[in-house]
Amino acid sequence: MASLHHRQQSFLNGLASVMAKRNTPLPPSLTGVPSPNYDPTNSPWSYIEPSPHIGSFRLANHDVSLFKLWGLVMQYGGAHAARLSLAALVFS
Fold first, then answer.
1. Among 3, 2, 9, which Cα is nearest to 67's?
2. 59 SS3 class
3. pLDDT greater than 90 at residue 11
């Protein structure tokens, strides 16, 4: 069975790969994966405040783990369900 650290690293590698193939590479400081095509001056991700921890970003003075965020979204039904829940909160 893979360790938690190994699963997190595999997740970040996969995420970095998917985003690079979509021509929107993530900042290497976020994923820990080198990305020669990442250009902070033209990236839609340049506004993300990096966390001192690989795989996390800063939001409202807190570190947010991409792996944990993905796990929570999946636990609650995936991206579609999360969008529906958010819409219900916003428009209620």
1. 9
2. strand
3. yes
Long-range contacts of the stretch 51-57 (C-beta < 8 A, 24+): 54/12, 54/29, 54/30, 55/8, 55/11, 55/12, 55/30, 55/31, 56/30, 57/30
Q: Are strands 62-65 and 49-50 parallel, antiparallel or unpaired?
A: unpaired
Does the CA dihedral 78-24-55-10 come out positive or negative?
positive
- 83 has pLDDT over 80: no
| Model pLDDT for residues 37-79, shown as the tens digit of each residue | 999 999 999 899 989 999 999 999 999 999 999 998 888 888 8
